[in-house]
Amino acid sequence: MGNSALKAHLETAQKTGVFQLTGKGLTEFPEDLQKLTSNLRTIDLSSNKIELLPPLIGKFSFLKSLVLNNNKLTALPEELCKLKKLETLHLNGNHLRQLPAAFGQLSALKTLSLSGNQLRTVPTQLCGLRHLDVVDLSKNQIQNVPDTVGELQAIELNLNQNQISQISVQISHCPRLKVLRLEENCLELSMLPQSILSDSQISLLAVEGNLFEIKKLRELEGYDKYMERFTATKKKFA
């Protein structure tokens, strides 16, 4: 991609606050973007070949949305955690194994998508994020859901297509969790905490494609209570 094309994109971004450059084979984050640190609200560099996010990402203090789906990122810089206004972060289809230690400082974050990466566990940093609504951790290599998950503030947690065989009973204590997706994992019925059914806020539990028949779920104690929440929620959205 030529300089003139990039220049045109930068000029548009200066006016609109949106810089979008997808599927152009970029191998690095465009350095020229640092001229727009106070303008940009949205950066979308999806479907490129970016391997590193430079530390200068921390300077985009007004950024609300950062989309880097389908790149080649293996790690994220700590500087990313300075983005106090960031509400949406999409990093699907990269090679991430973990999140920066200070990730919990992204205090405005509402939507986080990390589908199709190489995470082995539910990152504990997520529990510090008070405004989180949706977390997508599907298609990773997560094997168990740890006790810390009880502090997660998310409304929806997607763990489909992982390798989960164990879930902490603490998941029933998530204060806002309404939707829990666990499809296509390695769960035995005995490993599914019954308190999810009997004693949680969860009103949609998706568990198809595990190591038990769905009809067996209906025989568990607490299933009636779960169905009451499920039906009440459905009526609300009907």
Automatic annotation (TrEMBL):
It comes from the Eukaryota. InterPro entries: Leu-rich_rpt (IPR001611), Leu-rich_rpt_typical-subtyp (IPR003591), LRR_dom_sf (IPR032675), LRR_domain-containing (IPR050216). Pfam families: LRR_1 (PF00560), LRR_8 (PF13855). GO terms for cellular component: cytoplasm. Keywords: Leucine-rich repeat, Repeat. This is Leucine-rich repeat-containing protein 57. It comes from Scopus umbretta (Hammerkop). The lineage of its organism: Eukaryota, Metazoa, Chordata, Craniata, Vertebrata.
